[in-house]
Amino acid sequence: MARYNGMSEPSEYDQSMPAVQANLAKFERAWARVRVTHGGRPVEEVRVALAQAFNEEGVEVWSDVADEAARTISGQS
Predict the structure, then answer these.
(1) Is residue 10 part of a domain?
(2) Which of 19, 32, 35, 44 is the most buried if burial means most Cβ atoms within 10 Å?
(3) Once rounded to an integer, what is the mean pLDDT over residues 12-16?
């Protein structure tokens, strides 16, 4: 990977953005779906629903991000 002042070349950034946007869209779809069906429910129940939704969307999410999303959706953040 080429570096530009310690960072990736701008062209590499531009090439990566479609994949980043696609992953974000998958995350948002999963989040929205679970928020509607599980809003206010216990964190563990929301966490399980999110894991399933993320899997269905084909997106990998760091556990810390999934945990925070579950707490937020359950209303315990």
Answers:
(1) no
(2) 35
(3) 81
Average pLDDT value for residue range 22-29: 96
pLDDT at 37: 96
pTM comes to: 0.79
DSSP for 3-52, written as a single string: EETTEE-HHHHHHHHHHHHHHHHHHHHHHHHHHHHHTTS-HHHHHHHHHH
Q: Does 8 fall in a domain?
A: no
For residue 44, the enclosing domain spans 21-74
Sign (positive/negative) of CA torsion 58, 63, 67, 68?
negative
